DNA-binding transcriptional MerR regulator (Janibacter alkaliphilus), 420 residues
Amino acid sequence: MAELAARSGLTVATIKFYLREGLLQPGRRTSVNQAVYDASHLERLRLIRALAKVAGLPLDTIREVVQVVSGQSSILDAMAVTQDALVGERGDEDSEDVEPAAAETLAHVIEARGWRYQPGSPAHSAAIRAVAELQAEDLTMLVDRLDDYARAADAVGRIDVQAVAGADSLDATIRGVVLGSILRRPLLDALVLLSQQHHANVLDQEDEHA
Amino acid sequence: MAELAARSGLTVATIKFYLREGLLQPGRRTSVNQAVYDASHLERLRLIRALAKVAGLPLDTIREVVQVVSGQSSILDAMAVTQDALVGERGDEDSEDVEPAAAETLAHVIEARGWRYQPGSPAHSAAIRAVAELQAEDLTMLVDRLDDYARAADAVGRIDVQAVAGADSLDATIRGVVLGSILRRPLLDALVLLSQQHHANVLDQEDEHA
């Protein structure tokens, strides 16, 4: 237990708490007050730590994610439950009914890309809401380029999935999905800003030479 | 003035406030208590509204952005001041000094893309911090794919710049830059999630057939 604490960077008290809450599987008992923990326990603790500390998810949500992992699920299931936990359920009605115009616009984009997705998932609702906000602000120059954005998003999602698919265990995969979703987002945002600087530079120079 | 209010969706009191604060240029006086406003005033109000309501920027920052617009600046200047206002200055030291390893990793990626960017800009600092966090969490599978992410980010930034460059006036361009930055972000996030679903689906099916 002491070694597990040292390796995971968590306190013994925290690890005992996760054991009591059923988030960490029990070790193999060797005597009444002695148990052996292995690499799977360390991997699970790293996952719980990521969900709690980095993602800031509540205990109930962490339990849900851990249950999926314990159930020997596929990457697909893992990604679905992680996405739902991270995007969060919105209490309101399905975006598809509230924003039919945006839903239809998005449907065309999805069809063009050939995406097989989960209709009604929080991600799908979020996409419809985002399109609806662009339409409400009359940002036609962005709405007109939805296909281009979807193509770029396709590249990002493919890299994300490929990156985590190679992990050694499902725990490591989910940790990759969770941390990837949380930490990759500011990275992509910042890289896009740098790319904007570059392309604005290019445009400026073209104007000067024109 | 009443017509300006009706067209912009703002109250007369709000418009008068923007006039007093020097954010909105004065109308052409036709008598002591009568002034004529034109399309440029409406465009400016739409920009101020976007900065205040949608971006939630403080008055001082809005003034900075509006000054750039009034100065007949280029898209490049407009983008720089908008990015700085949106990303926000971090009080701490330059990320480049705090995170030399992450800064070097990022430098290689930027060089590979051939990006001309503003070193020391908030966007550059944010990118260094994002790389540093991935490295701190030992997410090598993501760090190893930085080049791929940068390629995808390049596509997004190019679309962003092309979308706003075609606007009729600099006010409209900046409004596009501001609203684009704020509203396009959740759109791209949601599209990436849908793309993740698709690619996880594809991977799952490959596993079944294997």
